[in-house]
Design a protein that fits this description.
Order of helices and strands: HEEEHHEEEHHHEHHHH
Radius of gyration: 20 Å
Mean pLDDT: 77
Low-confidence stretches: 1-12, 215-245, 251-284
Strand order of the largest sheet: 1-2-3-4-7-6-5
Distance between the termini: 12 Å
Shape: globular
Number of strands: 7
Structural class: alpha/beta
Largest sheet: 7 strands, mixed
Length: about 280
């Protein structure tokens, strides 16, 4: 798994820190659940808009884009999909699917701390609830799909004009994208501090302590999850694999972690420094 050192490990603002913590949560799940691979913050092509986190597990690839806000009343709006300058503009999202060619992900997901639109909002009529698992196990997020045939009725112009003006996007590709696209809202907020943890930090530390056994290591974790969780890379960068595993085992609290988990954890660390390249073989 990979986190690029520029943005991921030294976040420029709170939004990137939220993304780091969410990424760290899944780096830990990669160990406990045995992900096939995990890639962080890598565009597959110019204009890729769903590139924050890609996970393959049991042969299913899911690509996620994270959005967070300090405004607890912030809700998803039509402007997010139809605004001229929105990074989530719907034609950009569809192009992410189209330009993946013959190897699209099985799922594309927008993951946000935002609230669902109010029932009176026009966008609420264009969403339908969808029974998908939360990005964070046990968290009561709400998942939706776009009502594609309402947004772009057959033999009619689309409600969101960008769909009709982009020459690369047609109705069939839009419908195909919507079959794979999930909007997940109400995700846990973050304090970006492990000394005063918010719901997202608690999800991360629960994974570390309850699932992996890195209890003592939590006190060494600074703000960003990638930056904190994998600060272990600072003492394993120039060692052999055997040396790295011995160094990991020598950390307080790591003695109870079995050799297989340590190897997977070591793989996470190595991939953090690899610039986003997908592993050539599954993790141990």
């Amino acid at each position: 798994m990979s986190v690029r050192r520029g943005r991921g490990l030294q976040p420029a603002h709170r939004g990137y820190r939220w993304q780091d913590i969410a990424t760290g949560y899944h780096l830990i799940r990669a160990i406990t659940e045995g992900y096939d691979f995990l890639v962080v913050d890598r565009k597959e092509f110019e204009g890729d808009r769903i590139d924050d986190l890609e996970i393959a597990h049991r042969g299913v690839r899911v690509r996620r884009q994270f959005k967070s806000s300090d405004d607890q009343e912030r809700s998803l709006t039509t402007e997010d999909f139809a605004g001229k300058h929105s990074s989530l503009r719907i034609d950009y999202l569809v192009l992410t699917f189209i330009r993946s060619g013959e190897d699209p992900a099985q799922e594309y997901r927008l993951c946000a701390t935002w609230k669902p639109p109010a029932s009176a909002a026009a966008l609420s009529e264009l969403l339908e609830r969808y029974p998908a698992k939360s990005t964070f196990v046990g968290w009561p997020s709400e998942c939706f799909r776009l009502r594609a045939s309402r947004i772009w009725p057959e033999n009619s112009a689309p409600l969101w004009s960008w769909l009709g003006t982009n020459p690369e996007v047609d109705r069939s590709s839009f419908l195909a994208f919507c079959d794979r696209f999930i909007v997940e809202l109400g995700l846990p907020t973050s304090s970006t501090s492990l000394t005063n943890p918010g719901p997202l930090e608690r999800a991360l530390t629960d994974e570390l302590t309850l699932r992996v056994g890195l209890r003592a290591m939590i006190h060494c974790i600074p703000l960003g999850c990638g930056s904190g969780l994998l600060n272990a890379s600072t003492f394993v960068n120039k060692a052999t694999t055997g040396d790295r595993l011995r160094q990991l085992q020598s950390l307080p609290g790591l003695g109870q972690v079995n050799q297989g988990s340590l190897k997977s954890f070591h793989s996470c660390i190595c991939l953090l420094n690899s610039g986003g390249r997908r592993p050539r073989r599954p993790l141990n």
